[in-house]
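Model: Ready when you are.
Researcher: Fold this.
Model:
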Amino acid sequence: MDSYNPITALIIFFIGATLLYVLFRPVKGWFWILKKNFKSNKKIIIEDILKQLYHFENSGNKVDMKTLVQVLDFNNQSIVEAIKQMTVNDLIYSESDVLKLTEAGRNYALRIVRVHRLWERYLADKTGFHKTEWHDRAESMEHRLSHDEAEELAMHLGNPKFDPHGDPIPTKTGKIAQIKGVELPLLPVGSVGRITHIEDEPEIIYKQILAERIHIGSLLKVVENNATRIVFQSEGEEFVLAPIVAANLTVAPLEKEVAVEDNIARLSSLNEDETAKIIGISRESRGESRRRLLDLGFVKGSDVSIDLINPLGEPHAYLIKGTSIALRKDQAAKILIKKD
């Protein structure tokens, strides 16, 4: 018969106590962390469903369970369980297999959209993150920011009405400003207008627009419009887009005819033997980036020329107010000039 060993028993006791502490200690125990993550994941699924239903309804499209499963990056069982819970909580209802938001569900969805668009506005105005990162970072933050924190952010930003893509930011009471304009393919040849909105979904089309360096707030003139391509002039450059890509641009036609001057261009198009005057900075440049350009001397009326061409491509150095300033091409593309 084995004899009782108090030291062994004590070691086993301490090991067991340590495991219990690691598992169940307040707040930071594994059990509570896993439980919190489980609840957090359920919250994310529910909020993503609400947001998708809001976007579908807002665009006049109907959505059923099959469509929802296709657009969401969650397993089917998780979505089904979330739909059941949302129905019980009176956030959604089903009508002939079509999923619809209740008034409470729509209000909840608007709060999520509000946080997402406020955060994109913050990233655009207050940080140096590239626009390709705004959407994904806002996707994460929309599930984490509380209602009070969202209101503090809105006040900090001056209660903006639109996000950097031109999408309206819902107010805290759920009111939404209207986007002015029509899809670019609907404008006839000769039309002049201003880009008021750039749709950032689907991502593949948005990336094509970014690659073209098309800027919100820019004036444009349609020079060709047919079933295969849309051609327009803007800021001294000509752009050619497929209609499906051009449809992601909303343009507000100008009531009075405005001439899109041929000699207005982007600083990035300036040649080594040319001089020009600054006529402004594109609305695409915001916040700290805009202030930095102004502080460097790129203000309206200033003379500018190329001081040094980088043999490796970029940045080039521009002579402004007697100082040589190096700018990347994407920075120079946001400065508007009138060539001499």
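Researcher: Now this one.
Model:
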Amino acid sequence: MKSYRIGVIKGDGIGPEIVDEAIKVLDAVSVTQGFNLKYEEMLLGGAAIDETGVPLPEETIQGVKKCDAVLFGAIGGPKWDNLERHLRPETGLLGLRKEMGT
């Protein structure tokens, strides 16, 4: 049975709630279509800032490069609006896009 590695970036605000529901859908599809999914949670955006002090930790960059796909929730919110530009959640998103070539 084919197996896929999925990077999960739940994000901020409603992101975690939406991503949790998307995982339920992916799990149902994987069962009916006969493949396995292995999820690996990673940090980006405000959640990453709160936990690591930066919007895009190196661990996330390295992690997504090892995955077959990334499931990504919403990032940002008023809590982080007044940070310096290089520390804002959106800067992490731009950095991730650059690293992934998207």
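Researcher: Key takeaway?
Model: The chain is about 45% helix and 20% strand.
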